[in-house]
């Protein structure tokens, strides 16, 4: 018995469409993370402008947390050779990204703070907040659900 963590290959995708959707979601997360990192100093100041119901310190920590979870969600989506624990963590990071962007966009629309961009692409691209941003958040949730179902890291039973 070894005490070192061993990387294992990812289980096969359930369908071809699941594999394509996971690549689409991974590509989208790469674009989001890179654009947010490109203007990271402004992105850190943008998140507290959302007036989220959390404390001021947490909202400053939320910007790096969003970028980090976007990056950590990618290995699961690309079906890389990972340890079982990191595969689960990577899948949960994908869920966190979808949930936090849905919450942020919904919060902005309902509370109507005076901000000029939603922040999906950091401050590089100015995207005016609106219900379309909530729909994008729900689309991320659908992509996460689809890829989690198709690439489930747990053991599968055959009937």
Describe the structure.
The protein is mainly α. The chain has one domain (16-150). It is built from five helices and no strands. Helix 1 (16-38) packs antiparallel against helix 3 (56-77), helix 2 crosses helix 3 (56-77) and helix 4 (84-111) packs antiparallel against helix 5 (131-150). The two termini are 32 Å apart. The mean pLDDT is 91.
Distance between the termini: 32 Å
**SSE string, helix = H, strand = E?**
HHHHH
Q: What is the count of structural domains?
A: 1
Low-confidence stretches: none
- β content, as a range? under 5%
Q: Please, what is the oligomeric state?
A: single chain
Gross morphology is globular
Q: What structural category characterises the helix and strand content?
A: mainly alpha
Brief account:
The chain is mostly helical and 159 residues long. It has helices at residues 16-38, 40-46, 56-77, 84-111, 131-150.
List keywords for this structure.
159 residues; 63% helix
């Amino acid at each position: 018995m070894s005490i070192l963590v061993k990387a294992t290959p990812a289980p096969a995708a359930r369908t071809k469409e699941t594999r394509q959707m996971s690549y689409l979601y991974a590509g989208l997360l790469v674009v989001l993370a890179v654009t947010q990192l490109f203007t990271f100093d402004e992105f850190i100041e943008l998140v507290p402008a959302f007036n989220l119901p959390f404390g001021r310190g947490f909202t400053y920590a939320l910007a790096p947390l969003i970028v980090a979870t976007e990056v950590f969600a990618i290995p699961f989506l690309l079906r890389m050779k990972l340890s079982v624990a990191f595969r689960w963590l990577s899948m949960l990071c994908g869920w966190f990204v979808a949930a936090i962007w849905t919450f942020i966009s919904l919060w902005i629309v309902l509370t109507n703070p005076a901000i000029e961009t939603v922040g999906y692409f950091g401050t590089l691209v100015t995207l005016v907040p609106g219900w379309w941003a909530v729909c994008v958040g729900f689309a991320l949730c659908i992509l996460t659900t689809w890829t989690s179902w198709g690439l489930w890291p747990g053991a599968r039973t055959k009937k």
